[in-house]
Amino acid sequence: MTNIQQNQVNELHNQHVLAQQQDYYKIHKIETDSGTIELSMAQIRDFLVAPDVEISVQELKMFLGLCQYQKLNPFIKDAYLIKFNSKQPASIVVSKDVAFKRAFANPNYDGMESGIVVLNKETGQIDQRKGTLYIKSREELVGAWAIVYRKDIPRPTEVIVNFDEYVQLKDGKPNSNWSKRPAIMIHKVAESTALRKAFPDTHQGMYDESELGQPIEVQNSPIIEGRIAQIKQPVIEASVTPQQIYQESIPAVENGNDIF
């Protein structure tokens, strides 16, 4: 064994020891809406995160903690841990379906109203309307709104969000999804925000893909490489690669910036 190979073995051993010390392989039983699952940081790293992206122990712990607290099953796409590259913080995204299912299951939920806010280019008048329909040639999309009603609270939860504060940019311009479906995207932001405010106990930390999740602040946290990145295995020709499997499991991504 050469010195380089020995150093690689020592490095892998040190990572393994560090991972064990931080409960990297510990299995956690989680009671989710779809039943009991077993989840560990190792499983998240190897099966739920892109194999070629560096992920930290802290990011794994944050995702595991959210799944435990909110009883989410990432294997059926209740939640995603998304990180495009090592320069960007990871984001935790929760399926919009989960948020609505939980609202509907709450006996105090009494419905929602939502829509968009547009500016008439000729008159300068602002119109707050239901739905997402507007005429681009005559109107400018400036925001969205949502109102959630609860039977046990006399006043509804009202939210109005500004388009410019949420639109996701790429090279200074709205990315693919926000360019093609701006009204739908900002409308989803308003609904997601309203549900979190109306139901803080069951929706805390649950961010929709239109908000691109909540960035995880990481400080002095070691990087854990996935098994695919650690071990050089023989090349096997296959119709589907591990990277393709991962990409198909999350909302569509264009050039690492757009998320659907």
TrEMBL record:
GO molecular-function terms, A-Z: DNA binding
Entry-linked InterPro entries: Phage_lambda_Bet, RecT_fam
Superkingdom: Bacteria
UniProt-listed GO biological process terms: DNA recombination
NCBIfam families in the cross-refs: bet_lambda
Protein name: Phage recombination protein Bet
Organism annotation: Turicibacter sanguinis
